Structure formats: C-alpha cells, structure tokens
Amino acid sequence: MRIPASAAALSTTLILTACGDLRVRNAETHHETRAIELDKSEMLRVELHLGVGEMRLTGGSPKLLEADFDYQNAARPLVDYHASTFRGDLRIAQPPGLSHSNHATSWNLKLNDARATDLIAHLGVGQANMEAGSLNLRSVEIHMGVGELHLDLRGAPKRSFDVQIHGGVGEATVLLPKNVGVIARASGGIGEVSVQGLEKRQGYWVNAAHEHDPVTIRVDARGGVGEIRMVAE
C-alpha cells in the first residue's frame, strides 16, 4: 500500500522541520564520555529516552557501557545505573522539560556483548542507528517518534527473543539474520510494508529456518505514518 500524498507530505514536513532543529546556531556544544564497569549481575535492562537528536548503538564493549555524548545547552544526558546480583538497570535520558527545538544531542553507545540484555528505546525526533546483532539479546522494544530507525539484528543469536516496534512518523528498517528462524508480523498504519528474504504464510512472514532452528527471532512491527522495511539476509 502506497502512502497517500497528504500523509507523505505531512511526514516529510515534520521530519525536515525536526532535522533542521538538530543543529542550533550559536549554541555551545559539550562533549562527555561515560563508562560503567562490568559487575556480577546476570542480566541487563537498558532503557533509552532520546527526545531529539541522533543515536548510534553497537556492541563490542569490554565494559558494561562505553558512551560518548555531544549535546547543546542544558541537554546533558542523565545516566543512571543500579544493580543487584540478578539484574542491572541502566537508564539514559535527556533531561525532562527541555524545549527540544534548541537542545540538539548525539549519543554514541557501546554495550557489552556477553551480558543478557533487554533493550528498550523511546525515540522522539531524529535518527537512530542500532547495530545490535552482536548483543546477547533477551528482548527488544522500540517506540518511534518522528524520523528514521535502522535496526540491525544480523548476527548469531544464542537464544530466541521478541522484537516489538511501535512506529511513529517516518521510516523503520529492520535487518534480520537468515541463519536462524524468523517469524514476523508487520502492519502499517498509513504507509507501506516492504519485506525481503521472507515468505508470507497465514498472515506471518517466515523463513525456512523457523521450522527446525532452536533459535527464533519473533518480530511484531506496527507502523504509524511512513514505511516499515524488513530484510532477512
């Protein structure tokens, strides 16, 4: 289903307006580096709240978290971590009550690949590039706002997990591995659903591996205004 012209125009206008606000003239830019060492907790829950700006998330850190933040004005991110023996809780958020039009932010986050991780992201206005295929994921939940999401889950997961994507205004691209089972459901609000590398069966998109592989990624992507693309490769 193609995007109606009026909806596409609204989406484009909102995205261009939002992205135009990401860099504010004559605003002082600050840089900050944060790190959290590994502890004895068995699991990690990561909750991200990015109101406006750009975010890149990857694995590969020898620590629990390595982060670089660039931000303007009062948009210094709040980083909170506390843990028990069983689970660590990491929350990174922009301060509440900001006028997003003049508080641009860029986050570069690296997580540990070995720690079993639940990943939750609440995205506002901007772009998010999440290269999470190397992480030891237990679940992924993403709430989109206005902008673009690129979620790369290609890798060799050791456990099955669920992925939930709640679309906003813009485009979401999800890259999935073809060497494990995939069962996906995708529905657009006002927009288009594009699927490659999977075949449709009884309302779901699947690959051949889903019938025999002990590891399965289950995806539920629901769009708002814009496009959802799922590619298994």
In summary, what is this structure?
The chain has 233 residues and is mainly β.
Fold and architecture overview:
It contains 1 helix and 17 strands. It is mainly β. It has one domain. It has a 17-stranded mixed sheet that branches. Strand 14 (199-201) and strand 15 (204-206) form a beta hairpin. The relative contact order is 0.17.
Secondary structure elements and their pairing?
Layout: H1 5-20, E1 29-36, E2 43-58, E3 65-72, E4 78-83, E5 87-93, E6 105-111, E7 116-131, E8 136-143, E9 146-152, E10 161-166, E11 169-176, E12 181-187, E13 190-196, E14 199-201, E15 204-206, E16 216-222, E17 225-232
Parallel strand pairs: 2-5, 2-6, 2-7, 7-8, 7-9, 8-10, 9-11, 10-16, 11-17, 12-16, 13-17
Antiparallel strand pairs: 1-3, 3-6, 4-5, 12-15, 14-15
